[in-house]
Each structure stands twice: as structure tokens, then as C-alpha cells.
Write a structure and sequence with these properties.
The complex is a heterodimer of chains A (324) and B (163). Chain A is of the alpha+beta class and 324 residues long. Chain A contains 13 helices and 11 strands. Helix content of chain A is 29%, strand content 19%. In chain B, β3 and β4 form a beta hairpin. In chain B, α3 crosses α6. The chains are: A alpha+beta (324), B alpha+beta (163). Chains A and B meet through α2, α3, α5 and α6 of A and β4, α4 and α5 of B.
Chain lengths: 324, 163
């Protein structure tokens, strides 16, 4: 690990003024620093800031402090009751120890687990811009089929963020100049294009302080994750689904996907293929067609295309079955 | 830097880069906590910080000067085993023993999580938890055992959970 200056912030304002890389849970950042994939010159410890609460808002939604640990968020009775898709997504990720340390804000900002990003002897445009992408033509079983570029086919690894994408969460930040902004989950991540090293719209020194959830959505919620092991593994594909059925027809649908793209993936055409229609295999197939219209396999991950289709259809059956 | 470990105060001057794990092992001689992967994947380094189980390899020592840290040395001794230590012996919950301190610290934290009503990935209901063998396996999936003593580890933890 390269050495660094260490400073401890006692307020969000002091944190953004300190001009360094923020560390809270550290479960991803320190892992990457040990491998010298991340080499911050200055770490600003934000772990003791007063951003560790979940609060109900007047509109019925929740405001989640950026430092709320993943395990606490998953077990929060208000999340369990109103946003079970979020509890389920959190519980499908990592291990008990990691969830105890990893924070809500940090989870959104975690880096890809692409094996070539992690291997400093290999080409990776995300780690070393301009060096190439060894994953294209390499061992890419885990990697993306949607939203890729010829520079990068990495996936975003988070489960939590997939549920938050389906829930239309808002990210609240504080900038070094004191400005606050609210960023929709759908605007937060960037496609890799020619600059895969830039993953979000967060600016240098900008701090995530809160995540806001709108009031609990109508309908049934589900998080379905397919992975190589039954526990403690990243998704091959995952689905966060929220679907309501009224008078035999799908009245609303929000579907986001993990393991497929460089960001929690959501495509309004998938939802448009469902809304207003009676649930049926043909309708679910049409939704899968919409999702996978631009999908591109890279050899070892070609299987993700049919796997995603089956996982989506199975999820939609569960979301719209008898009791819906 | 100052630390509170197993109820005792310690002073040490590790490098700013030192993990909590390296502080324990290399600076304070508390070698019960084991280094396996050093990347948060194996769980051998699990300790309890303010009662919560974490991977001590993935956190900086400097960030824990105001915390209560509990390691395997603070849980029990050869003369007065912690109930989980006794249960691991009784059920042969190990072969080589390298993962055992992490397994036991993790199980202590895990049982506290269950007592608080925290659900897991395999919980049918998110609000009513029954600690089955499947639940224990899921909740302990952050602790690997190369000797694959898993069935006996689950038996040991089950017995303590029922007591």
C-alpha cells in the first residue's frame, strides 16, 4: 500500500473542505489500496460524521444517512415493511461481516470486480486509461452484456444499487463550494464510452450525505439473484422488481437489473412492454425482448443473454402470480 | 495511538497504513486473530468492534481508537472456555483450527444479530426469524473453512443458539 496523509473530519463541511479521498467503511477502498489499484494521497475519515440515521419524511419516504451500514439498513423495520426489495438486495450481497462495515454511500461507489481491473499486470482502461481492455477476448464470464464500449465491459457489482434504481432513489450530495444537489439514481452513473475510469457524475471532493427513497411503491416487490454459489458471490444476473396488478392488468412496473451492465440497468421499454397488459408468458417474453434488444455477449458471458431472459420471466411470474 | 482491546487499554505506534488485524498481531502480540486472505474474503480475521463482527483486515487501525475491540483472547481462556469454544471442541468444529478464532468471533456476532431480529438472505419472512441450519450456513458464509468442517460448525453453533 502507498502511504497517505490521514485526516479525520468532524462535519460534512469540514470533510469536503479537507480535499482528499473519503473513507468510511473502507471495505472496498482498502482492498484496492492494498493492491495499489487505488493510491490516494490523502484519506479523509468520515466514519464518525452524524450521517448514520434512517428518518421518515413527511411525504412518507425515507432519508437514509450515507453512513448507515448495509446490515442496519436491511434490518430496519421501515425498510422491511415498505421496501422489502431493498432489504432483500442488501441481504443478497457480501457477507455478514462486510455488511456490518460497508455503508450506504460507499456501496453506491464501489468499484467493479472485473478480474482484469484487479490484476495490475493486465491491460485495463478503467484502472490505467489507454492501456486497453484485456477482458474483451479474455475470461469475461462475469462481465457485462449491456451498455459496454470497446474500451470496457466491466459490471457494476452492487446489489443494493439495483434495488435503489428500481425504487427511484435520489442521492443527496454536498460539494466543496457548499452547494447541495440531488441526483436521481438514473442520472448518477455514467456509461464507460471512452472514459471508463469515470463511473459517476460525482465531482472531485463531492460527498454523498444522504439517499432519499420516495414513499413505498404499490405492488409486490422482489429481488432475485442468480450466482455461482448460494451465498457470498456477485451476481451473474439479478432482478429488482416492483409490479402492481389491477383488474387483471399490470398497472405499474419498475424493473432494474444487476450483473448485466456498467451500472444498475433499467430500460423503460421493458416496463412499457408490461404496463396495461394482462400477465402472460408472451407479455413477459416481449419484456425480455425489449431488455435484451441491444445485448452483446463477449464469448464466455454469452450465456447471460438466455439466463437473463429466463430470470426475468421467472421474476415476473412471481411478481404477478395468483395473489397479485 | 491508543486502543481498547478486550477491556484493556493499549498504546502503539503502528504505520498509518496498518490494518486493525496487523495492529493486533504485529504490534500487540494478539495472534489469536488470524490472517488468511487479507482481503475480506475468508473471515479468519473476524473480530468484534463495539459488539459487531467485522473483517479486521479491511479496516485501518487508526480509525478504531475510540472503539471497544473484542478478540478471541477476550472471549474465553483455556480454563474458562466461551460456550461457543466449548461447543466447537465438543462437536469437532475444525480440523487444522486456523479459521476457528474467526468462526467463533463471527458466531458470537451472528447470534447477537439473530437476537436483534435481523433477517438473512434465506429468511422466508423478513420479520420472523427461526435459526435453522440453513440460516446458520447463510449467516456464516463470510467464514471459510478449507478443511470443510462446516457440518460440525453448524452443529456447534446450533447447540449454543438453543441453550
Amino acid at each position: 500500500m502507498k502511504t497517505f496523509e490521514y485526516a479525520k473530519a468532524d462535519s460534512p463541511e469540514a470533510a469536503v473542505a479537507a480535499g482528499g479521498r473519503f473513507i468510511a467503511g473502507g471495505t472496498n477502498l482498502l482492498d484496492l489500496m492494498k493492491l495499489q489499484i487505488e493510491t490516494p494521497e490523502r484519506l479523509v475519515d468520515i466514519s464518525r460524521l452524524d450521517l448514520g440515521d434512517v428518518e421518515k419524511r413527511a411525504d412518507g419516504g425515507l432519508t437514509i444517512g450515507a453512513l448507515v451500514p448495509n446490515s442496519d439498513l436491511a434490518a430496519d423495520p421501515r425498510v422491511i415493511k415498505g421496501y422489502p426489495v431493498l432489504s432483500r438486495a442488501l441481504l443478497a450481497g457480501a457477507s455478514g461481516q462486510l455488511r456490518n462495515k460497508a455503508t450506504t454511500g460507499g456501496n453506491l461507489l464501489q468499484r467493479t470486480r472485473c478480474p482484469y481491473f484487479y490484476d495490475t499486470a493486465m491491460a485495463c482502461n478503467k484502472r490505467a486509461p489507454g492501456s486497453g481492455c484485456a477482458a474483451i477476448g479474455g475470461f469475461n464470464r462475469m462481465l457485462a452484456i449491456l451498455g459496454t464500449s470497446d474500451q470496457c465491459i466491466a459490471t457494476h457489482p452492487s446489489d443494493m444499487a439495483v434495488a435503489m434504481r428500481a425504487l427511484d432513489a435520489m442521492i443527496v450530495t454536498l460539494k466543496p463550494d457548499g452547494d447541495r444537489r440531488r441526483i436521481a439514481m438514473g442520472d448518477f452513473y455514467r456509461l464507460p464510452g471512452d472514459t471508463p475510469q469515470i463511473e459517476t457524475v460525482i465531482e472531485p471532493g463531492e460527498l454523498i450525505t444522504h439517499i432519499e427513497l420516495p414513499p413505498p411503491p404499490k405492488g409486490r416487490q422482489l429481488y432475485r439473484k442468480v450466482r455461482d454459489r448460494a451465498s457470498y458471490a456477485f451476481a451473474l444476473v439479478s432482478v429488482a422488481g416492483i409490479v402492481s396488478v389491477e383488474d387483471g392488468k399490470i398497472a405499474s412496473a419498475a424493473l432494474a437489473f444487476g450483473g448485466l451492465g456498467p451500472m444498475p440497468w433499467r430500460n423503460s421499454a421493458v416496463e412499457a412492454a408490461l404496463i396495461g397488459r394482462a400477465p402472460s408468458t408472451d407479455v413477459f417474453e416481449a419484456a425480455a425482448d425489449a431488455l435484451l434488444a441491444g445485448a452483446k455477449g463477449h464469448g464466455a458471458n454469452d450465456f447471460k443473454i438466455p439466463l437473463t431472459r429466463r430470470t426475468l420471466i421467472a421474476s415476473l411470474r412471481d411478481l404477478t402470480g395468483d395473489a397479485a | 495511538m491508543h486502543f481498547t482491546i478486550n477491556g484493556a487499554r493499549h498504546e502503539a505506534e503502528p504505520d498509518i497504513r496498518a490494518s486493525l488485524l496487523d495492529l493486533l498481531r504485529e504490534h500487540l502480540g494478539l495472534t489469536g486473530t488470524k490472517k488468511g486472505c487479507d482481503h475480506g474474503q475468508c473471515g479468519a480475521c473476524t473480530v468484534l468492534v463495539n459488539g459487531r463482527r467485522i473483517n479486521s483486515c479491511l479496516t485501518l487501525a487508526v480509525m478504531h481508537q475510540d472503539d471497544d475491540i473484542l478478540t478471541i483472547e477476550g472471549l474465553g481462556s483455556a480454563d474458562a472456555l466461551h460456550p461457543l469454544q466449548a461447543a466447537f471442541v465438543k462437536h469437532d468444529g475444525f480440523q487444522c483450527g486456523y479459521c476457528t478464532p474467526g468462526q467463533i468471533c463471527s458466531a458470537v456476532g451472528m447470534l447477537d444479530e439473530v437476537a436483534k431480529g435481523w433477517p438473512s438472505h434465506v429468511s422466508g419472512s423478513l420479520s420472523e426469524i427461526e435459526l435453522t441450519g440453513e440460516e446458520i450456513s447463510e449467516r456464516m458464509s463470510g467464514n471459510l473453512c478449507r478443511c470443510s468442517a462446516y457440518p460440525n460448525i453448524v452443529d456447534a453453533i446450533s447447540e449454543v443458539a438453543r441453550a
